[in-house]
């Protein structure tokens, strides 16, 4: 007679004991990968091929109210769109680029608010069609 495996009660007991153990094996603790200019700390837990676990990336924000403020380069790293975490130089370069863009956009808004209209007005043309025409 063939052996059909372990007794179901023993198998259930071993499964229960296995659930009490930590989810990750020793050596795959969260590693601090980097910190951004906002103070967010980024962590990574490497994948475990033996247990079929994928790499996990997450961050901890120092300010609970502004947890959704993430630099774009770190957001891409968290979502696995890039393999390597961003460097400090890259983050500073992107900050300068964003500040430059903000200053140009504020100059552009100031230029538009100095009496410029959306559409030019000419005296020889009626503003409301038919307003000069009065039927007899």
Automatic annotation (TrEMBL):
Pfam families: NDUFA12
GO cellular component: mitochondrion; respiratory chain complex I
One annotated GO biological process: mitochondrial respiratory chain complex I assembly
Highest rank taxon of the organism: Eukaryota
Location of the region described as Disordered in the Swiss-Prot/TrEMBL record: 98-136
PANTHER family xrefs: ADH DEHYDROGENASE [UBIQUINONE] 1 ALPHA SUBCOMPLEX ASSEMBLY FACTOR 2, NADH DEHYDROGENASE [UBIQUINONE] 1 ALPHA SUBCOMPLEX ASSEMBLY FACTOR 2
Similarity comment: family membership: Belongs to the complex I NDUFA12 subunit family.
Identification of the protein by name: Uncharacterized protein
Lineage of the species this protein comes from: Eukaryota, Metazoa, Ecdysozoa, Arthropoda, Chelicerata
């Amino acid at each position: 007679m063939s052996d059909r495996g372990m007794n179901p009660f023993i198998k259930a007991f071993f499964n229960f004991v296995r659930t009490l153990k930590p989810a990750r094996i020793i050596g795959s603790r969260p590693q601090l990968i980097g910190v951004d200019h906002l103070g967010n700390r980024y962590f990574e837990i490497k994948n475990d091929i033996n247990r079929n676990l994928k790499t996990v990336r997450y961050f901890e924000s120092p300010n609970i109210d502004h947890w959704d403020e993430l630099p774009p380069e770190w957001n891409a790293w968290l979502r696995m769109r890039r393999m390597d975490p961003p460097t400090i130089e890259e983050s500073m370069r992107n900050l300068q680029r964003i500040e430059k863009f903000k200053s140009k956009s504020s100059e552009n808004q100031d230029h538009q608010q100095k009496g410029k209209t959306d559409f030019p007005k000419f005296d020889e043309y009626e503003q409301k069609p038919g307003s000069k025409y009065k039927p007899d």
